[in-house]
Amino acid sequence: MILNRKCASALLVLLYTYINNPFYFAVITPLHKAFYYAAALVPVAFCIYRGFKYEQNFGSFSRLFLLYFISIFSAMIASSALDFQYLFYFLRLLIGMFASVSVFCIWSYANHCDYVREDFPIIFLKSVAFYVLGTVAFICVPPLKQFWQSIIVDFGETDFSSFVEYVTRFGFAGFSGFGCAFLVSCAAVLMCYLFLNGRITLKQCKIFSCLFIVGSFFYGRIGFVVSLFVCGIFSVYQMLHHRPKLFCFYILVVAVIIAVGTMLYFAFPDIQPFIDWLLEPVFNFVEKGTFESASTNQLGRMYENFSPSEKTLVFGDGYWLGLDGSGYYGRTDVGFMRNILYGGIFYTGLLYSLVLFFLFILYQALKSCGKKGSGFIIFLMSVQFLLFELKGDITFSFLKVYIPFYLYLMYEKRTASKFDVKYGVC
Q: CA 355 to CA 61: how far, in whole Å?
């Protein structure tokens, strides 16, 4: 039975890895697409059919979500653009959200039947760690990467991993960039929750921390910055509560990374261009006194050139992609800018109210379940969302990760209540 539980947990980790980073095998693409949509939609549809139980707060969130869905069409009509690019994009994101909820549905059934005993957030952490380890394997064994590239079809992203600065941005799903960086930072946040509430040991926390800190810069500097911020603030939080071990450990990890990076820089000339790109802001600060890079300069130009008309501010332009169907409309990939350009400030306000309301009900769920560090976890999520949204569009990726976490808390609360009633625990 123990072996069966381990196999079930491993299968769930593989499924969650695939759901978060989907790809298709080239030889069986139609069958593989059918599998993806079945895995994404069938479990959640079955749960709804059997009577999906949800809290009143989540019902209110669902109605707000429906109102936002209606606003998509309102934005198209008000702007007179009648462009359906964003609608198609939203529907793909919605399927992705259903897919992550489906993984939770499978886990809850397996947990109820005692096939799996690991907490759902631990399954998520292991899935992200597995993806990071896959990237490490592809970096260390180039023929393996070439073989994998030859048998998969990229899922919606062009492969830039042949460029020096993007050489580490490759995983099971092919080219892995901004979205994977966000997933790693989410894993870092949920790791803090698990450790605070005694669901993982200090040793496990250290192992996951190393994987997420080192792995985060594989997919983009923003992921490294946010993951390092999360782990750093968490270690300070622990130290303030008279638990300094993690703080000392993170200092050691950073020192080791600097030492190893320096040795690799001088020992292997081939990777020097990558390290130069990775540490470009640091080098610029030392040489010029300005903490900047080509990426931050480009981001700065986006902010400087963002000057929508009054009509655009109110109603939006109704376009998500460039008028020729390629690139981002308005030549910006900053999250709030893209949303304002699409639907205006009222539409954008409604979109972000989804996130604010969700964080509110998630905080209530954490408090009602008696979880430690509830406010601290919500703070980390809020900062994470803000930093990523200032760089790109991340709203529904945020909900895709944390809605199943909310459902897990509600599931845990219900099962605990049943246990209390059954055994007379007050």
A: 10
- How many angstroms separate the CA atoms of 76 and 406, rounded? 32
Tell me if 222 sits within 8 A of 391, measured CB to CB: yes
Phi, psi of 328 (to 5 degrees): -90, 140
Reply yes or no on whether the pLDDT at 221 is more than 90.
no
244-275 residue pLDDT tens: 877 788 888 778 877 877 777 677 666 667 67
pLDDT band at 423, cuts 50/70/90? Answer: very low
Q: Which pTM was predicted?
A: 0.87
